[in-house]
Design brief:
six-stranded mixed β-sheet; 154 residues; globular; 4 helices; alpha+beta; two-stranded antiparallel sheet
Length: 154
């Protein structure tokens, strides 16, 4: 899919949003300031947790400080409304998959929990905006999530 990832400009924090589509695990949305390491910072298996910080190791200590992640709850199967006109550019999310949001910023356990709750609230609208490839709507939908990353209550 050549239109992914969708780049969001002027974000106050570097972030990446990943998810599982019918084509497999994909990077869906990134900020224009997203470092390459952040794109790969999210654990593939959340071990039953819905949010956390990248585990400490000597390599992470040097290069990946303040990398945080949050998983949404399970998604229903979400597809384009134009199912009869499907082509290779159609995005369809796998049922029971999760959105995975990773960001680089100072964060506490409480902030990460707020980010996860906001991601859950916004997940369906976010998926629909990604399917529509509507980057301005994606930026608006991500706003409360990004505010939660910065410690604001929304």
């Amino acid at each position: 899919m050549d239109k992914l990832p969708i780049m969001i400009t002027r974000s106050s924090i570097p972030f990446a949003l990943q998810g599982r589509t019918i084509e497999g695990f994909q990077l869906l949305v990134i900020s224009d300031t997203c470092p390459l390491g952040l794109r790969n910072a999210m654990p593939r298996n959340n071990a039953g947790k819905f949010h956390g910080r990248l585990s400490s190791s000597w390599i992470n200590f040097l290069f990946r400080k303040n990398y945080n992640w949050a998983y949404s709850s399970s998604l229903p199967k979400i597809a384009s409304e134009y199912s009869e006109d499907r082509d290779q550019n159609t995005i369809e999310f796998q049922a029971d998959s999760q959105l995975q949001f990773c960001w680089k910023s100072h964060s506490s356990e409480a902030w990460r929990a707020k980010v996860q709750k906001q991601l859950d609230r916004q997940k369906l609208d976010l998926c629909k905006a990604i399917i529509a490839n509507d980057d301005s709507n994606i930026a608006n939908i991500l706003s409360p999530i990004i505010l939660a990353c910065e410690g604001y209550s929304v």
